[in-house]
Predict the 3D structure of the following.
Amino acid sequence: MTRRAAVIGAGLAGLACARVLRRAGLYVEVFEQDRIIGGRMATTRLGLESFDHGSQYLTARSTQFKTYITELTSSGYAARWKPRSSTGEEGGGQMMPWYVGTPGMSSIVRPLAESVRIHAGHKVHTIVRSEKGWDVWMDDETSIGPFAAIAIAVPAPQAQLLLGRLDSLADPLSRVRMSPCWALMVKLEERTLPDQDVFSDMSEVVRWIARNSTKPGRNSRGECVLVHASPAWSRETEEADPEVVAEELWAEVSHVLALPPVRPSRMVAHLWRHGLVDSSLGESYLYSSEHRVGVAGDWCLGRLAEHAFDSGTSLGRAIVASLV
Ligand SMILES: Cc1cc2nc3c(=O)[nH]c(=O)nc-3n(C[C@H](O)[C@H](O)[C@H](O)COP(=O)(O)OP(=O)(O)OC[C@H]3O[C@@H](n4cnc5c(N)ncnc54)[C@H](O)[C@@H]3O)c2cc1C
């Protein structure tokens, strides 16, 4: 039996799974369709400025995620963020501490990617079983394998496509519901927002506004603002032109915050098509020891980064247990 395992998806769930597999002595290869790793734990550049356009901050309830956050903060990959609330108080309104990746949210996955082989820019089209194990076929009709086991750590609708006729794994995923979410990145040359760092549930259109530049480890001149649209509005405008979405969202932000008529120097809208989980699977992962294929992701347990980490870690352990 080959000691190679494949992970599809280099988000937090896939890379948490990869780390468990690697620590158990397996040779791990991760396939990621994007050119960068992190998935929704994302940081992108607009000119000289960086924006966390996916996940905004982390909270930790489970012991294993708390332990991982401690590892991140002690190695400089994350820090506590205490944004000023409407009362002007730092960290006001936080039920539990908020952490952010430094210098960007994508740093959160960096330690997990050590010593695993990452095939970035490789979209997996299908997985095919042969006598020797599983082969992973890419969109460009090349394949890599064989692998003893496969972890699929992508959003549920995409996982269903990859699972094909593995009905025992694919069928339960129909229970999962995920919503799109528009993210708007705005660069302003001067400080323009009211004296507060985060604003939530501002209207039926805007769910979240954050001064990205107030997170620790960010250097920026002027103001970098990150906006998330509400799930309902994002669903209605899912097929709209990103430039039109950017204009409409900025008009709404200007209106709800009563801003002076300022034109951003840059603004870009990005759609997270499977952004937020509406209904989860209710199990931390699914794994078939007969087929040696499993699925993981935030959508298994909830809608937070912590759920993705716990799901990927649990799937990794199940795969290791099945291979001994
Ligand atoms: C707008 C937004 C705001 C959020 N805010 C927060 C927050 O503040 N706090 C919090 O805890 N959580 C937040 N979340 C949720 C958090 O980002 C997710 O729970 C977590 O990042 C999910 O990780 P994952 O590994 O399950 O999935 P993903 O991060 O989606 O990773 C899946 C990966 O698989 C890749 N992939 C998909 N299909 C294929 C294929 N066929 N072949 C190869 N690769 C493929 C994708 O490119 C992606 O990199 C937010 C999410 C969004 C979208």
In short: The chain has a mean pLDDT of 95.
